[in-house]
Each structure stands twice: as structure tokens, then as C-alpha cells.
Amino acid sequence: MSDIGGKIGAAPITAPGWPAKSREGVAIVDCDVHQNFRRPEDLLPHLSKFYQEHLYDQGLHLPGGGYPNMPFRANRPDLKDPDLKERDFNFSVEFLQKEHLDRWHIDYALLTGPPPFYGYSGLPDPDWAAALCRAFNDWTIEHWLSRDGRLVNAILVSPTDPSQAVDEINRLAHRKDTVAVMVPMGTMMPFGNRFYHPIWEACENHGLPVVSHVGGGGGATRTVPTPVGFPTYYMESRMSRPYMASTHAASLICEGVFEKFPNLKFALIEAQQFWAVPLMWHMDSDWKALRDQTPWLKRLPSEYFRDHIRVGSQPLHEPERPEQIHQMLDMLHADETLIYCSDFPHFDWNDPVTTFPRLAEDLHQRIFVGNALEMLRMEDV
Amino acid sequence: MARITVARVSEIPPGQRKIVVPFRGRAGIGIFNVGGSFYAVRNICPHKNGPLCTGTLGGRVTTQVPPSTRGGEISIDGDGEILHCPWHQWSFEISTGRCLVDPEVYVKTYAVEIDGDDVVVTYED
Description:
The complex is a heterodimer of chains A (381) and B (125).
Chain A: E1 29-33, H1 49-58, H2 93-101, E2 108-111, H3 126-143, E3 151-156, H4 162-172, E4 178-182, H5 197-206, E5 210-213, H6 234-239, H7 241-254, H8 257-260, E6 266-269, H9 276-290, H10 301-308, E7 309-312, H11 324-332, H12 334-337, E8 338-339, H13 361-375
Helix pairs in contact in A: 4-5
Chain B: E1 2-8, E2 17-20, E3 29-34, E4 37-42, E5 56-62, E6 75-84, E7 91-93, E8 109-115, E9 118-123
Antiparallel strand pairs in B: 1-9, 2-3, 3-4, 4-8, 5-6, 6-7, 8-9
């Protein structure tokens, strides 16, 4: 890679020409922003002596950082720090402010943690996974949340030991900046399974939505990302994401999670979004035939979906004819289900300006602000 | 015809670039030295307005057959002649502005002349 001449000219051309500001000025709530540490040792002050020694001895020990052929270790090359070695990124709150929050006028950014770190959910040792989540959450509080009021947190918990996940939720739920709970999407069992219900119960008790981001279980290199096995290439692995997300969504609905926890919201992000349309249609038609097999479901599956499940906007499809996006958004009930996610700072991020065509003002407000603030219980901000 | 001196030849060795801002707009242009030849490319990706000229350089990655076929070999030709946008990785031929993943898409390029040690970009007013 050649020198890009410092950062001169690296600034993207933003065009914050929003149709309207609403809710007293909140114009963008970005539900997927990745903070990261520079070195695993950054977590040491937040680990107990036992796990400090574990980190010294073993390193992070995370199985697989993701599907192995992501370009540029997933990050946008235009953000690389010219003072650091090639392909290195100076992750810090100042970096996030300059390159994202200030540049694009982001009002609130939901921190979702670094996807390579989601491998904790694929660790054989659930106690090490829980210790890493605690340490990461405390590190995030100290180095990010305490330094910018626009940052809100999806605290990381590991689904491999629900009891420790519940402890972590109970430990941090009182914080104003704790607005969601993040579990990686790569799992050994779909999320409707009763094994996980204590986590969902704790989330409901504290009024916190679950936000599940693609990755984990070794970035789906440890747990099988498709029902037919492991794909070979990174692009294939991306194509498997809707199947992971739709399997979780169908599981949550069929197992009656939303009958049991009627106030729970559950977001599935970075797994695309339009898979939800045929899923809702197919589940509704199947439910009419098979209703007696899940008699605890009182409503159409699509009604549970629209009330409880949210999907992230990134990566957004680019239809053959651009205007088809409007039909897709209509079928998705995007005014209820879609939340804007940038995926900053990754190479395939979706900026807030050019990603969507011009939308009707009320739909724009729902996708970029309303749906997220309701899910995160931040309506009053 | 407008002529604007944007750089010294010695500033941009082969394989290097200089981004000049502003140039007919805030985004500027990237001046690339590809193996001794100079090119000027608008610094806006026609896909999603990304800062194209800050992207990574590469070559044309080609093979005739899938890797499961005996005899297939993947080659990289013209290393340094292809520019990848840092947003979404669409690839462009620096010398022509041609997009390699969509034949209908081009990024704007400008003619470049070398005048002594001056790199001069020209365009119709």
C-alpha cells in the first residue's frame, strides 16, 4: 500500500441534508458502532489476578476472529492512522468522534464491541468468557462511555453461561448508558431455546433489548453457520447470515419467548434485513396449518415479529432497480422493524447519507430515530 | 482549456499518490504515479461517494477456471494499476477510470501533462 499523503483529502464528502430534524434535534441514532482496544493487554486492569495470569499465559484464546478472508481486517482503509504501521487503526474515543460522530452528526451511537472479540461465545470455558465480558464492559465504561454523552452501550454477555450473563446484566443495568445487551449471533442452539430464557428474563426485567450482532462462536468458524456445513469463502459466509438470523427469529417466535416476555425486544443486526419478509409470510401461512403444534402462540407469527424483533439496516441490499428498495421497505414494515446501523468503521459500512434513496419524511424518521429510541427506551432523550 | 499545476514530479515517486484538495469541489483529486505515468482521478467514488483516492492499490486478479479445476492458477497483473475504494471495495482502473465490477460506471479522470518538474492537470472550462 502506498502513502496516501497523510489525512489530507481523506475526508468523505458528507451531505447532511436531512428532510427534517425531529425529537428536539435527534436526527441519527446509529445502532451499530464498533469500539475496539489496541492490544488485549488493555483489558488487564479490569481482570482479576487469576484471569490476568490467564491472559499473560494464553492470550485472549478466542476461537477464530471471523470468516478468514475479510478485506483489510474488516476496517475501512481510509481510516488507517498514517503515523502507525500499515493497516493499523488508532481506535479511541477521539478517533470515533472525529471520523464518525462529528463528521456525520450522529446524535447517539450504540457501541456493540469488536466482532473479532465475539469469539468469546465460542470459548470452551464459560468462566473465561464471562470474565472477558466483564473486563470489556468496564474498559468500555472507562475509555468510551465516560468520555462522550452520545455513546450508549450494548453490554456484552456470553450466552454460554446464562447465570453469569444475568449477573452481568444486573451489575450494569442501573447505568443510564446501559441501553441494550449484546449476544453474538453464532450459537450452538437457536435463541428461543429455554437454556437462554434467564438472560431474556433479566433483559425484560431491566427494560433492556437484546441486540445480537453477526459473529461469535468464532465468527461462525466454530459453530456451523449454515444447515449444510461450512462455506469456503468470505462472501459465502455473508450469504449465510440471513439464515442464522431467520433461524433465531423463528425460534424466538415458535418457543413462545414473546408470550413469556411480552415486553422483550430483540434486534438482529448485520445479517441483512429483507429475509424477514418471506419469513413473516411463510411463518404466517404455516402457522395457519400447524397452529396446534404451538398452541401457546396467540397471534400470527408476523405480529410477534413486528412487535418484538428489529433488524439492522446494514448491509442494505442494492436492488437491480433502485426504486425497488421502496417496495422492499414497505413489505418489511420498515417503519416498525428497521433500525439504522452504520457498522462503523468496517469496510462495508453504510453511511447515513447515500445508503438510502430519499425516503418519505416519516419513514426516514422511523428508521433513523424512532424505532431505535423506542427499542432502547430512550424516547425521553 | 484550464491548466493547473498540482504537484512536483519529484513529490510523487512511482507507486505513490498525492491528494489535492480542493479541486473543482471539496473532494479534490488523486494524482497517481503508476510506473512513471501520471493520472488524475476524482476523489469521489461513483458508488456511494466514498473518498476513492484514499483506497488501496492492487492489480487485476484473474484466473480462467475455478480453483477446483486442474491447471487453474490465479494471477495478479498490473500491480498498482487498480484502485479499490475504501468504502465497499469497488475497483477502478486508474488510467481510464473504468470500474471493474460494473461496466457502466466510470470515475471522472483528468488529463495530466508533465511540464519539467510540474504535474499539470488540464480540463475544459
